[in-house]
Design brief:
Blueprint lengths: L13 E10 L5 H9 L6 E9 L4 E4 L3 E3 L15 H14 L3 E5 L6 E6 L3
Antiparallel strand pairs: 1-2, 1-6, 2-3, 2-4, 5-6
Length: 118
């Protein structure tokens, strides 16, 4: 889903967007308790978010089950839905005029850019 973004402060300036992986339950303490109690083996709900350099959250993907975030990055084999969720987010970002500018070691380690006002 795409959030409503405020009008650009500096038209024509390049914006950057970074995709991050987050524990959906980390946003609200009560959600973490409900996710953990309702899941098997302490799994939680993960999702991808697209944030600007200023920290504004412009995009949020669908959630998918996975282990709590730690040093081991999730993979599709044990976090089913990861690839579909990321694909959906990438389509939304591209539809809004963002171009991928870099890709890191993880599938979600992505950076996009576009001109303000695009």
């Amino acid at each position: 889903m795409t959030a409503d973004a405020p009008q650009p402060a500096h038209p024509g300036r390049e914006e950057r967007l970074r995709v991050e992986l987050e524990d959906a339950a980390s946003r609200k303490w009560w959600a973490r308790i409900l996710y953990t109690l309702g899941s098997q083996y302490g799994r939680t709900q993960l999702r991808f978010v697209g944030r600007t350099e200023e920290g504004r959250r412009l995009y949020t993907s669908d959630t998918f089950p996975g282990p709590p975030l730690n040093k081991t990055p999730p993979q599709e084999a044990w976090a089913p839905g990861l690839e579909a969720s990321l694909g959906q987010l990438r389509q939304e970002i591209a539809r809004d005029g963002w171009s991928e500018t870099s890709h890191g070691t993880q599938p979600w380690d992505l950076t996009f850019s576009r001109r303000n006002g695009s």
